[in-house]
Structure formats: structure tokens, C-alpha cells
Amino acid sequence: MHKFNALDGALLIDKPSGPTSHDVVAAIRRRFRVEKVGHCGTLDPQATGLLIIVLGRATKLSEKLMTSDKVYEGLIKFGEATDSYDADGEITNSLPVMPMTMDELNEASVSFTGDQMQVPPMVSAVKIGGVPLYKLARKGVEIERKPRLVHIYTFRFLDYQEPLGKFRLACTKGTYVRSVAHELGQKLGCGAHLASLRRTVSGKFDVAQALPLDKVLDMAESELEAHIIPFLRLSTAE
Length: 238
Known about the structure:
Blueprint: E1 9-15, H1 21-32, E2 37-39, E3 48-55, H2 62-66, E4 70-78, E5 80-82, E6 91-94, H3 102-109, E7 114-118, E8 127-128, E9 131-132, H4 133-138, E10 148-161, E11 164-171, H5 177-188, E12 192-202, E13 205-206, E14 211-212, H6 213-217, H7 221-225, E15 229-230, H8 231-235
Parallel strand pairs: 1-14, 3-12
Antiparallel strand pairs: 1-3, 1-15, 2-3, 4-11, 4-12, 5-6, 7-10, 8-9, 10-11, 12-13
């Protein structure tokens, strides 16, 4: 039987806005000289929140952990649509926002719950012919994308101060929340984009358990070991 290293397990990171998920993986690999490091579910660069990092032998569990349901919180800005469906993109349309109440917003958002066939946005990491869509988008190329089945358990607004609505959304893996924001803007006739996004839950793990990236990178390896979720606990997780 193989012996497990103290770093064979998962680390819960509260990702800051800015770095890509791959940047976080690379920083941890460099800092702690771990050969095998991966992550379980990409967060867009501007998104924050829970990023599950797997190290050593736990990288073989990444697919299992990636299939978990997710919960997000964020802000949707109404009145402006962008080409990437989020705040990083170029504004493609700007329209006045009609007066809306929270109840009216939630009446519209509830129609997005359940099974959905969702088309990945052009500005995404989905690969077609081995090329990420965002690389094609940067060249001004738009190609047909196959819709994917996703499931949205809940999508509810918690606050609305025109033009920003604060929401919480629970969904299956692979759901593009910015696509939901874009489609909601279309449904309401004023356009919208995802202004900010934070992942709060992935499977049984919560961002409240996570450590800020800068704090992790300042740790000694012996200190880091105390925060590793062991391989055996991960492998028996439901």
C-alpha cells in the first residue's frame, strides 16, 4: 500500500480577483515545489471565492470533485450588454432600465430554474478543435457552439438598487452564470451583464473554510500541512 505524503490532499483557496485559476495552481506549485497540482472547477479571472486545489496523489480525484454542485453570489448590472457577458467585455448595447421591483426581478429569474440548454459564450475556455473559444473571439471569429444541459436549482435576487441586482444562484457544474445574466437582460428587454461573481460553495465545501491566496503563499510548508484535507477523506466524500 502506498504511503501518503502530508501534502496529498486538497486545499481550499479563497481566490482573489485578477489571477486565473491556472495562475493560482502555478503559484502554489512554485511556492511549495509540488510536482502535481490541479484545481477543481475554473473561476474566471475577475471572479472570487472558493477554488479547490488538489495536490500530489489527490489530483486523481479532481474529476470527482469537479462534478459537485456549486453556489454563487454576485451582481448583475442591467442596461448594458457586453460581448463577454461580464464586466471584462466591450459594451455591445446600452438601453434604459425600466423601473423594476425585487418581486418582478424574482418573477423573471425563477423562469431560469430547472433544466436548461445553455450555449457556452464565445469568450470562454471551452475548446473546439483543440482551440479555446476565447482565442477565436479575440480574433473576431464567432463559431457555432453546441448547447449543454445544465440545471439551476435556485436563482434569486437578494437586493436591487438600480442598475445593480445582488443575487444567489445554485447550479450544476459547467453552468455559465454570465450567460444567465445575459439571457435575463434579454428577457427583460434592457440588456445586462455579470458585474461581479463569487463562488461560495462547491459540493460539501464552503468558502468560509477557505484561506486567502496571499496568506497561503506566505506559509511555511509545515504550516500548510495543517490546512490540507487528506486524500482518504476526499476519496470517501459523497
